[in-house]
């Protein structure tokens, strides 16, 4: 395959996401990457041992939800990008359980290979099967077998000597995690690739990486994490002080409350500060003291707060929908699948406003709705909490049934012959100029799923 239109078509077929864009999205959603929140790891003995010793080829960063694993990996990626020797490649992938494009082992390999080929196109010689199979090579029932074979062969190429491979949130790989862990373990033994992976403290991951991985526990390094969280708190309070014009006394008390209750959890600090952004400075101290320590306690408090709002029922429907669908929805897709949002079909900005007001569970990036963090979805779907019955009163299966019925309704009302008004039925899809607005945009989830 030549470096040409043919190669570019191959990349288009291979691409499930561009991990570089995912990294930018994640950092933007979290308010930017603060150097002081990750710099400690660059002097950590386990990390330095992994980076500097060619015989240490797998490092597992593990920790509880909200401890800053993802931003830690973002910082490590930036450091490796800046310091790696010329010619040494780096590839990474961010798993996301709420998006089926980012939560399978095959998607992980497609993302890693995509980045490697972007840097070293000659590696395409390992993908000869594509010439016969086309894009089905990456999508059919044997996709994992094909991709893992291609990937393993690539790692034996001399141009990938000591390549850095990083995967964030292995616990959010919902499909074929066992096979992915086996591949990581095997290639860390049989090739020179240097793996760095992160996850929660899951027994399954511990068991499969036990014999090959060096561990960097965020709980064991609690003092370093706590210091990083304190730096993060200082940054957030400084921002709030400028935004809300806090006096010195208010800023000091806010900082003290955050430091006393954060328990080394970046996410808790971020969520509390997000609430303070929408609170008048006069009520800042009263507001902050209403937030209990701990993520689940915080989420419980926010559910109670939502229940007292005018649009509570609508927001609960939105949460139930987003918690159930197989991928993140756009604003326009959401308006077609929520009964109370049908009147917002031509006004998705109103839905954006509603979600923004109650932002402790959801966030919006480029008109797509995401959970603020996987722990937020876990909380809502945990039947031990009342939130589950509030957003899914009839259960998950019934919610899928409702989505199915609404999809049938919107498809029957929208689809018609030649909806794009093509002049020639034999037009290539690349030649079709989408109308604005796209009549199929709001029903994309419905016609795919």
From TrEMBL:
Keywords: Repeat. InterPro entries: NACHT_NTPase (IPR007111), NPHP3-like_N (IPR056884), P-loop_NTPase (IPR027417). The keyword Repeat applies. Gene3D superfamilies: P-loop containing nucleotide triphosphate hydrolases. Residues 57-200 form the NACHT domain. Pfam families: NPHP3_N. PANTHER family: AMELOGENIN (PTHR10039), NACHT DOMAIN-CONTAINING PROTEIN (PTHR10039:SF14). This is Vegetative incompatibility protein het-e-1. It comes from Colletotrichum musicola. The lineage of its organism: Eukaryota, Fungi, Dikarya, Ascomycota, Pezizomycotina.
